Amino acid sequence: MQLSSIVISGMILNLSNLAYAISFRDCGSPGASVTTFSIIPCHSLPCVLTKGHEFTVLFTFTATTQAWYPRDFTQAAQLSSGNY
């Protein structure tokens, strides 16, 4: 096994300890079926997202149609005030 594979596997295991699986309802994602959704760090529900602190939202999905022009994107959210 290559060193990069070992490092990536370790990072994924560490992230999984910080995440809590979130129950969700897919409201009709066109072209994809969402399978998991999680927020890091979140140890229990409800997850408390505090203004000024960083958090990561992860989801996995299966494409249900051909992706002709796939692209990478990052979406940043501004929390207006307080906890969410």
Provide structural commentary:
The chain is α+β, with helices and mostly antiparallel strands and 84 residues long. The chain has a domain at 22-66. It is built from one helix and three strands, in the order αβββ. A three-stranded antiparallel β-sheet has the order 1-2-3, with helices on one face. The radius of gyration is 16 Å and the shape is elongated. The model is unreliable at 3-16 (pLDDT under 50).
- Supply the number of helical segments: 1
Percent of residues in helices comes to 10-25%
Give the biggest sheet: 3 strands, antiparallel
Uncertain residue ranges: 3-16
Rg, alpha carbons? 16 Å
Distance between the termini: 42 Å
Organism: Opisthorchis felineus
InterPro entries: Ig_E-set
Protein name: MD-2-related lipid-recognition domain-containing protein
Keywords: Signal
Which helices and strands occur, and which strands form pairs?
Layout: H1 3-18, E1 20-21, E2 32-40, E3 56-63
In short:
The protein is α+β, with helices and mostly antiparallel strands and 84 residues long. It has one helix and three strands.
Task: Fill in the keyword field for this structure.
about 80 residues, alpha+beta, 3-stranded antiparallel beta sheet, 3 strands, about 20% helix, about 25% strand, disordered N terminus
